[in-house]
Amino acid sequence: QVQFVESGGGLVQPGGSLRLSCAASGFIFSDYTMGWYRQAPGKQRELVATCTAGDTTRYADSVQGRFTISRDNAKNTVYLQMNSLKPEDTAVYYCNAAPGTYFAWGQGTQVTVSS
Question: Any residues with CB less than 8 A from the CB of 13 and at least 6 apart, and which?
Fold first, then answer.
């Protein structure tokens, strides 16, 4: 059974930083491109960043230069370092495989950017 457990969210002031973690299980993690996604209230879920098995990364324009995705295949874990956070980054953040290879979604972790 595939499972994602996201953690590391919280309340942070604008300009602050957070590091999200996602522990994955139930599939061969190292075979998959992994992604971080987010869903803000009243909006559709959007792709934030991806990281291939070979550590090639891509980012949405809205987070380019501020967020960094990374992975540890030995720990079946993917990370998202978020710097220079803005109020518009407020959302529930999820990890999953890349678009087109989704598994069931986890609970996500709430990130709130507010003064």
Answer: 113, 114, 115
List pLDDT tens digits, range 12-62.
999 999 999 999 999 999 999 999 999 999 999 999 999 999 999 999 999
Q: Is 112 exposed, middle or buried (0-12, 13-18, 19+ CB in 10 A)?
A: middle
User: Kind of pairing, strands 57-59 and 46-51?
Assistant: antiparallel
Residues 69, 7: Cα–Cα separation, whole Å: 14
User: Is 57 in contact with 47 (CB distance < 8 Å)?
Assistant: no
DSSP letters for 12-35: E-TT--EEEEEEEESS-GGGS-EE
Locate 78 and state its tokens.
């993917």
Phi, psi of 31 (to 5 degrees): -85, -10
